Amino acid sequence: KGARRPGFRVVHYSIQNDHAHFLVEAQGKVCLANGMKSLGARFARCVNRVFERAGRVLADRFHHVVKRTPTEVRRALAYVLLNVRKHFWQRRRREPPVVLDGASSGLWFDGWKGRAPPVGRYADPGRQCEVAPARSWLLSKGWRRGGLIDPAEVPGASAHRRGQAPRTGSPAVAA
User: Fold this and answer.
1) What are the helix (H) ranges across the chain?
2) Cβ atoms of 31 and 8 closer than 8 Å
3) Is the CB of residue 48 less than 8 Å from the CB of residue 57?
4) What is the rounded distance in angstroms from the CA atom of residue 69 to the CA atom of residue 35?
5) Burial of residue 91, with CB atoms counted within 10 A of its CB: 0-12 exposed, 13-18 middle, 19 or more buried
6) Which among 27, 50, 136, 156 has the fewest CB atoms less than 10 Å away?
7) Model pTM score
8) Is 25 in contact with 13 (CB distance < 8 Å)?
9) How far is it, in rounded angstroms, from Cα 169 to Cα 93?
10) pLDDT for 159-170, tens place per residue?
């Protein structure tokens, strides 16, 4: 229900313990600002209801990066949909399991390489679709030029192989 409003669509998301990532399409800065404000309020109501608490959940501001190339969009998709794998690797320093993150929109993603990953904890295959279909060429088709997304990928994996910490500062919002 909250995935769409005039000029604003949530196309993919990932919810972590202490942060969230959203890939959105917005028709300009005003639509982006209004859409994020509405999304923040809706998100807070849901989180507060689940955890039986009250108050602000998201910071007043959000970080956004406009994606302009198929490669940038593919990297953002992998980062958002597989973010739980990155955090697993950072905490445990071992290969994370290849399962669908139930706190992401991966359940409705149709760009997995091979078969979709098995459903992990918190994922409900019967859940109603919570995201809007992409309308932009980049987010609907263009990103596929870089290849489908392997569910075994770990965002920042090249840094992992070198023994370094994965890149940080990846987009919380891409339009």
Assistant:
1) 29-50, 70-81, 83-92, 137-140, 157-161
2) yes
3) yes
4) 23
5) exposed
6) 50
7) 0.77
8) no
9) 20
10) 444 444 444 433
